[in-house]
Amino acid sequence: MDFDQILEKCGSAGRYQYLMILLLGYIAFTTTVHYYSQNIIGFVPQHWCYHEALENRSFEEIAAIYAPFGKEASCTRLDKIEGDRVTVSNETCQRWIYNYDFGFRSMNAELNWVCNDAYKARIGQSLFFLGSLMGTFTFGVLGDRIGRVRAVILANQCGFVGDFLTTYASNLVQFAIFRCISGLAATANYYLMFILVLEYLAPKLRNMAISGTLGICFCLGALVAPWLSVLAGNWRIYLTCSALLQLVVALFYFVVQESAQWLITRTNVEGAIARLKHIAHFNGMEVKAADFEAFRRNCIVKRKLSNQPEQTAGIFDLLRTPNLRKVSLLVVFTFMLTSLSFNTISRNVEGMGLSPFVVFSLFAVVVPPSGFIQGLLQSRVGRKATAFLAMLCTGLLSCALGVALSTEGAQKNVTLLLAFALPMRLGISMCYTVTSQFASELLPTCVRSRGIAAVHLAAAGASFVSPYLIHLGTKLAAAPSLILALLLLTASGCTLMLPETNNRQLPITLADGEAFGKGESMLSFDCWRRHDDDVSKEATEEVRLHQLNGQTKSETEAEV
């Protein structure tokens, strides 16, 4: 009796699984608020250099006075203002007048990190992503060493500590250090929980249930993040709220069971059985002792069949065998391209002629539909076809936007920009979520946490280019969209070379990973496959398992 069979008896779609999906939804919500906090606290409101003659003027009058200076208006200091005639001062501006968007006082405005000091906020952002790189790797290793649950809790507590300390930052050094600590949780706080939930779910819940829940919770997070900051009115209060949301995750320790699959790879079969018994009790299922004994013998047999003890398996073992090496490298490369595209599209909320708070909200509204569309497509055509179609369509939309932006009139057309931006946001959300799930399913359980850590580490490295890609749009408006089109179309081609995972038993050992999807063609979509094929493919292994199972049982009886 393998893991999927014993999990079915304990309940693979019961109360515990739905509780786990809800907790994953909470993690998705807090992750979104935490992720976008870096953008929100750094919003730069409309501003002009202070002059005593402007104190009693409206913002419209001030904007009209500075209008002749164009893009340099925000940093131009005036010497004299006499009616419509102004003279420019040679001195550097030291004080500004801010037109706060919805009354929100951002960090840049409070610390006057604008004009010549605008680079300071970008340093903090860079350190945030540096922390993300370190946290992704560190917590990925910890996830395979100390367990998924503890790693999830530690990652979120780093986010809590970093955000809370940032509220006391008053200079660049403090801000950079605290944002680096906060960044440790930027990716790890989500993907570790995703892995943990995935390892306890029935295949039927991996499509609509996960996709729909994530779509709703990502949407709520993206909606709450900007308007929570408006409600708070100040970036320090907003970050405090973000920190407290992550502190709650510490309570997961008393609710969430450690991954039974991970415990098996650590040769702790009894620990895995104890977790499964708890889940069976929670789900109201009665499981016979003989079933657990059959599962115990199956784990022993699987360990004998494996050429390498899974407890000592490392991330570089993914590269030792040809099929697993090909799949692992394709997963890394595809997720790098998808993550870079996702960060560029989702974070590009300024320069559209609307308030960034409004654009954030509009982007959030399209996330739930993307989750439900993804869930439906995965159920009908499989994981591979869904990823391919999402990347292909989003890439073609990006290409069309690039062509449109090559004309100067389109660059100032708010309706046209939103007509392309919203479907692209929907598509890239599908691309990112399905690729993240796809990657988690393809890598074996014994190195899944470290493997996904390496995948997200590479993706975070690629995402460093995202701010520069967005900035390129100020010089060449069409360039970012055309580059994104190339990235997404390349990723769609890479997806075709990956095996399907929908309705398949996921690999646990390295041997499982090497055999998984071997011999599949590029067009082997789940919707074109006969679902009884898996039975014939696993017949030989089942015979070997039964043979060894009988041998193990005989050895056990002889010892007694």
From TrEMBL:
Topology of the protein relative to the lipid bilayer: Multi-pass membrane protein
A GO MF term: organic anion transmembrane transporter activity
One Pfam family in the UniProt entry: MFS_1
Keyword entries, A-Z: Membrane, Transmembrane, Transmembrane helix
Cross-referenced PROSITE patterns: MFS (PS50850)
Subcellular location: Membrane
Main location: membrane
A GO CC annotation given for this chain: plasma membrane
Highest taxon in the source lineage: Eukaryota
InterPro entries noted in UniProt: MFS, MFS_dom, MFS_trans_sf
Biological processes, Gene Ontology terms: organic anion transport
The Major facilitator superfamily (MFS) profile domain, residue ranges: 23-502
Transmembrane segment boundaries: 16-36, 123-142, 176-198, 210-229, 235-256, 327-346, 352-373, 385-405, 417-439, 451-470, 476-498
Listed name of the protein: Major facilitator superfamily (MFS) profile domain-containing protein
Species the sequence originates in: Drosophila melanogaster (Fruit fly)
Gene behind the chain: Dmel\CG14857
